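Researcher: I'm preparing a figure for a lab meeting and need a structural model of a single chain. I don't have an experimental structure, so a prediction will have to do for now. The sequence is pasted below. Please return the structure as tokens so I can convert it later.
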Amino acid sequence: MAASSGLLALAYWAKEQGDMHTLAKVCLVTGTMGLTFGFGAGVGSVSYTLPSELLSPDDASLGIALAEAFRAVWTAITMKMYPWCLEVVGYPPMFLFHAVIMLLTALFIVRYLPETKTKVCLSSSICSRKIQPLLYHQWYPTPV
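Model: Understood. Here is the structure written out token by token.
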């Protein structure tokens, strides 16, 4: 998505130059499709799955609800500020800023967040082995 945002910045820059309309069109289409696919394949679902990976199972639903609430609030704020930012800064710097933020986020995730894949799989399999007999006997009592 960072590369797609960079392509959008390049497209708007090329459009402002006047003689690079073909480059602008190619970069605009490629960048837009990349952002769309990137959001659908990764970034869109991350806000729902990240709290469940970082929080305990008891707190995961609260984390997901808070993430969605903050997302709605920041979307509303961004929608109100976006026209003003475009007037002041313009399209190319806005998309470059977005690309830089995504790269910094990726670096933060790689550097500071722990890998939880094996821990979650291991703990869920252990938990399912402990809970499964309990649930079975709760619904199907042993005959006396």
